[in-house]
Amino acid sequence: MTRWKCIDILCIALPMVFIFSKAMASQPLFLAQNKVPEGFETLSEPQQSLMDIYYGNRYLTSQLATFQPGKITLSNVNEVVRLIGSVNDPAFLTTALSGELNTHAEIICPPNVTKDCGVLNPPVAGVIFDESRFRVDVFVNPRFLLTRAADVRKYLPPSDAGFAMMQNFSAAATGNTEDANGNDYTLNGLTLLSYYENSVLWSWDYSKSQQFSVNQLYGQREYEGFEYNLGLLSSQGFGLNFTSDQPLVGARFQSSNNTRNDTDFSGGMPVEIFMPLRGRVEIRKDGRLIASYFHEAGLQALNTTNFPSGAYDIEISILDEQGNLQSQETRFFSKQYQIPPEGEWQLFAETGRVMTSVFDGALPQSTEQWLTRAGVSRRIFDTMAGTLSAAATLDTALLELGLFNLGYRYELSPSVMVADNGSYGMTLTGRTWLGDVSLNGSYRRLWRDDSEEENTDRPSLIGDAFEQSSFSVSAPVWRGSANYRFSSNRNNSDGRTETHGVSYTATVFRTLDYDTSATFSLSESEGNTVALFSFEWRFRQDRWNFRVNPRAEVQDNNGVKDRTEKMRLSASWDDGDLFDGQLTSSVTAEAGSGERRLDGTLQYGNRFGRAALSVNHSSTDANRITNYNGSFSTSFLTDGSVVAMGGEQRAESALVVNLEGREGDVFDVRIDGQRRGYAVAGRPSVITLSPFEQYTVTLSPSGDTLYSFDERERRFTLYPGNVVTLDYEAIPLQLLFGRLLMNGEPLDRARITGGLYPSSSDDIGMFQIEARSDINELRIELENGWQCSVPVEPDDEQYILRMGTLDLSESDCVPELEGQLAIGKRDDS
Question: Quick one: 654 and 716 in the same domain?
Answer without folding.
Answer: yes
